[in-house]
Write a structure and sequence with these properties.
10 helices; four-stranded antiparallel sheet; Arc Repressor Mutant, subunit A; 238 residues; Jelly Rolls; 2 domains; alpha+beta
């Protein structure tokens, strides 16, 4: 299990945690429960609120499924990321699932701990409300940014983000160091696996990315970022 300083170092990668009042940050570190998840869910859709979570190590994926059975991958969390915050504010059942890919360690603030940390302290409660607002603003920015964009541009934007959060630089480029199937990418960009396969194939022909079994490497970061900034689909990807 990580010690308190190790936890602080991981959580400090998140600007929200770095900006917390010292008593609240110390309370999170001392009262949070470190849990090991081996392919398990931290929570499932429909569950009552069971706490607020931070990823310490490994990988957590947040998936939302509609009543019609369509699912979308909302986030692939990297260490230091927080998730599950909305249900702790509104008290309503979960609307998404948080599942570990392989072995992951999380820091859980149970409902009892959350109440103890906030209690009658308006400053501490406001800090958690800011976390909800930050996540909401990020989601809205993404919706506005990607509205009506071509698939290849949306895909490039996702790959740029994944390379930033999970990239491992090497001689051949930046390997996205998570298990990344085309089905997963399709859920992230709201498209079919076949369409994503075609877009990736065209990027691969241009030397922008290379694909392997469950893996992807960004070969030309500048070219990928240029596609991500486009409003129209570049001719070479048509």
């Amino acid at each position: 299990m990580p010690n308190r300083q190790d936890l602080r170092d991981v959580l400090a990668a998140n600007p929200w945690f770095r900006g917390l009042p010292a008593p609240l940050a110390d309370g999170i570190l001392s009262l949070g429960l470190v849990r090991r998840l081996d392919g398990q869910t931290a929570y499932a859709a429909g569950d009552p609120p069971n706490g607020l979570f931070a990823l310490i190590s490994g990988e957590i994926r947040i998936v939302q499924t509609t009543r019609e059975g369509r699912s979308a991958l909302l986030m692939i969390a990297s260490p230091g990321a927080w998730f599950g915050e909305a249900a702790m504010i509104d008290g309503l059942p979960r609307t998404s699932e948080a599942v570990a890919v392989g072995v992951a360690q999380v820091l859980q603030l149970t409902p009892a701990v959350f109440r103890r940390l906030t209690g009658d302290n308006a400053e501490h409660y406001a800090a958690f409300a800011r976390l909800v607002c930050e996540q909401y603003r990020r989601a809205m920015d993404y919706i506005v940014l990607t509205a009506n964009l071509p698939l290849a541009v949306r895909l490039a934007q996702r790959l740029v983000g994944l390379a930033h959060d999970h990239g491992r630089p090497g001689e051949g480029g930046v390997a996205i160091d998570i298990r990344l199937s085309q089905e997963t990418l399709a859920k992230m960009v709201g498209a079919s696996r076949q369409s994503v396969n075609g877009a990736l194939g065209r990027m691969e022909k241009r030397g922008i990315v290379s694909m392997g079994y469950g893996a992807l490497t960004v070969r030309d970061t500048a070219a990928l970022e240029a596609v991500a900034r486009s409003r129209m689909l570049p001719d070479f990807l048509r």
